[in-house]
Amino acid sequence: MDHFLYRGGVLHAEDVAIPEIAAAVGTPFYVYSAATLTRHFRLFDEALEGTDHLVCFAIKSNSNLAVLKLLGNLGAGMDVVSGGEYRRAKAAGVPGERIVFSGVGKTREEIALALTGGIRQFNVESEPELRAISEIATALGVTAPIALRVNPDVDAKTHEKIATGKSENKFGIPIAKARAVYAEAAKLPGICVVGVDVHIGSQLTELAPFEAAFTKVRELTLALREDGHDIRRLDLGGGLGIPYTRSNDAPPLPTDYGAMIKRVLGDLGCEIEIEPGRLISGNAGVMVSSVIYLKEGEGRNFLILDAAMNDLVRPSMYGAHHDIVPVIEAQPGTEPAPFDVVGPVCETGDTFAKGREITPLSPGDLVAFRSAGAYGAVMASEYNSRPLIPEVLVEGDHFAVIRQRPSFEEMLGRDSIPVWL
């Protein structure tokens, strides 16, 4: 469920009409619903009720400070994968004890940043990283809490570019090696082993791969405890998918996910961490764009928008589907027609949809890309020297711009010309 609904034939974000925002900020833009973000966070929190747990929002899905502040105020932790994301979490007021640092390539500077600024744990992905954390923590005179990210070799049955739990993926330590690496960790200075971490991928639409991975984590936890390790925390990652279409083929609900976690792991007495991103922010946002032209092609028609692949790269990068809907509902009985929906970027890949059935539109009309709150603005670029588009947050009947569109002067001002030119 989200809070983007038609009222009187006009698409609204909560109680604000989308055309009102478009008139104020121009198109294209992203708009997020505070009510949807809140509801989706609470669904996960309630799904784990009765267990000691922390829901850590995966910042990589949407890193806007206002979104992080909203979720942090609700009690969310943060899952970060870079020093920049760590700084964002802290800038949003999230304390270090609620920040988990993941990622395969943490630099020494990033490790030191987190150790000095406060960290809940590092999810360690390799032996060299483990040794680096030990050296830096020892030099700083602190102890680094760590969980080893294990790779369970489980097929997440998702897109190959967002699968992370198979043996050929770059993530984690092979689960068969885990006991040996934990033994090494226990001997290293400056290291405190606190748990086990696993994350098998993103946009999973069934629970079976999760259960297979969590069952392996359970077996490993029991074996590690036999080895003398105090495993008191299980970080289960994120990855639960969202419905990108309005079909009945919906992914499992957080309640089902939580019930499965309790059934598989509930008797271990461990604190549970989960790291959802997409399911919290995905359906909490839409991207709004204007029609520039309708173009008749050879055997196909094109709907050319002012948004492009640099604003929303998922369709070009992953072949991803986003429902594209008119902001002003078509009159009853209006017949849709097939269009290739494209942007103005000088790439054939700048295509959002092919042969999509769209109700008749005219230049200047607004369309909304649903389910664009995750991996939308965060993956945007200034390709073709197109400014990053604004982000807007709606709460009830009011809205605020939470990231401005930069001016061309600001964009050009970031470059510098050497004196010899």
Report on this structure.
The chain is of the alpha/beta class. It has two domains: 4-31 and 282-413, Lyase, Ornithine Decarboxylase, Chain A, domain 1 (Beta Barrel); 103-274, TIM Barrel (Alpha-Beta Barrel), CATH 3.20.20. It is 29% helix and 25% strand. It contains twelve helices and 21 strands. The strands form three sheets. Strands 4, 14, 15, 16, 17, 18, 19, 20 and 21 form a nine-stranded mixed sheet that branches. Strand 7 (99-101), helix 5 (108-117) and strand 8 form a beta-alpha-beta unit. Helix 2 (34-47) packs parallel to helix 9 and helix 5 packs across helix 6 (127-140). The longest helix is centred in the middle third of the chain and has 19 residues, at 208-226. The N and C termini lie far apart (56 Å). Residues 161-167 have low confidence and may be disordered.
CATH secondary-structure class of the largest domain: Alpha Beta
What class, by secondary structure content?
alpha/beta
Poorly predicted runs: 161-167
- The CATH topology annotation of the largest domain reads as TIM Barrel
Helix content: 25-40%
Number of strands: 21
Distance between the termini: 56 Å
Q: Write down the domain tally.
A: 2
Largest sheet, if any?
Answer: 9 strands, mixed
Bulk shape: globular
Tally of helical segments: 12
Could you give me the name of the CATH homologous superfamily of the largest domain? Alanine racemase
CATH architecture type of the largest domain: Alpha-Beta Barrel
Strand portion: 15-25%
**C-alpha Rg (nearest Å):** 23 Å
Q: Quote the average pLDDT.
A: 93
Subunit structure: Homodimer.
Cofactor: pyridoxal 5'-phosphate
GO molecular function, one term: pyridoxal phosphate binding
Binding site for substrate: 278, 314, 318, 347, 375
